[in-house]
Amino acid sequence: MTRFLTALAALSLSALPALAEELVQRTELQRKPVPGNPAMEVVLSKLVLLPGGRIPLHTHPGDEHAVVVDGGDVILPNGKEAVFADGTVLFFPAGSVHGGVTSRDAAPMVVYTTHVVEADKPFTVLAE
Description:
- By secondary structure, the chain is mainly beta.
- The chain contains 2 helices and 11 strands; from the N terminus they run H-H-E-E-E-E-E-E-E-E-E-E-E.
- The strands form 3 sheets. Strands 1-2-10-5-8 form a 5-stranded antiparallel sheet, with no helix packed on it.
- The relative contact order is 0.26.
- Mean pLDDT is 87; it is low at 1-17.
């Protein structure tokens, strides 16, 4: 019991965001150069946001298009609650800060994303 309490005490509030981010599973499904423009790539991914998971604020070196397949309730960066319904379409232009969304649903949310990004730049840059 003492070991458990010691471990619990060691878990600071600053570690909680990192734990929430571990509840985000991104699986890259395909990455290909843009025909006629090898400096750009098209990246298709599946994103699963588990209950309590948080997508950190971030940017990409290109546009992101997303479709929510299995939606759910979320908390936005401003603290307001919202619902991402099944079929919701999202668009984030190159360099725009987005994310900061935390799942408050009991079931995983599933989102498919398509990015058209500069091939020689980091795919994601944290903005927090």
